[in-house]
């Protein structure tokens, strides 16, 4: 059975979430997309569900994160992800409407893996998501779920 790539989308705009879902479905059927609508829900998803030994959910292979979120900002979520030893290995792609250089610099300083300004139509969105998917699930050779068990990789355990 082929490996299913688990993607967590933290996005407050339902229209953008639908664009991303449609784009992912158009380019790949082997992606499990989980969507939460605010920063607090994103943190809860990661820290209460994904890392519980009893959880049926898998740790995401990739996180798509908007910056402008209710409850906790995307920056706060990114900082929490990258400060936690169980989640800091997960690639985080900032997918936002902002193209402000300060946002780009700030998120990279918080260890975002990529910054993408959201396109405005479905074709452009699909092309952007396809590029993200190609790089992060093929070129970057993400670790397998076995290698990511609770944030540890075999190389780090020796």
Automatic annotation (TrEMBL):
Keyword Phosphoprotein part of the UniProt annotation: yes
Keyword Translocase: no
Gene3D superfamilies assigned to the protein according to its UniProt record, in alphabetical order: 3.40.50.2300
Modified residues (4-aspartylphosphate): 66
CDD domains the UniProt entry points to: REC_Rcp-like
Keyword annotations of the record: DNA-binding, Phosphoprotein
BP term (GO), one: phosphorelay signal transduction system
Recorded superkingdom: Bacteria
MF term (GO), any: DNA binding
Occurrences of domain Response regulatory (ranges): 6-133
Protein name, per record: Response regulator with CheY-like receiver domain and winged-helix DNA-binding domain
């Amino acid at each position: 059975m082929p490996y299913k790539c688990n993607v967590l989308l933290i996005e407050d705009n339902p229209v953008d979430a639908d664009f991303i879902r449609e784009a992912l479905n158009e380019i790949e059927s082997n992606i499990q997309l989980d969507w939460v609508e605010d920063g607090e829900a994103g943190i809860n998803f990661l820290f209460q569900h994904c890392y519980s030994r009893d959880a049926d959910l898998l740790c995401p292979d990739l996180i798509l994160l908007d910056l402008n979120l209710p409850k906790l900002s995307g920056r706060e979520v990114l900082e929490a992800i990258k400060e936690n030893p169980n989640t800091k290995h997960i690639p985080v792609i900032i997918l936002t409407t902002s193209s402000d250089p300060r946002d780009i610099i700030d998120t990279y300083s918080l260890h975002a893996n990529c910054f993408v300004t959201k396109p405005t139509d479905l074709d452009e969105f699909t092309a952007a998501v396809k590029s993200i998917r190609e790089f992060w699930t093929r070129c970057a050779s993400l670790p397998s779920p076995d290698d990511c068990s609770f944030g540890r990789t075999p190389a780090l355990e020796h």
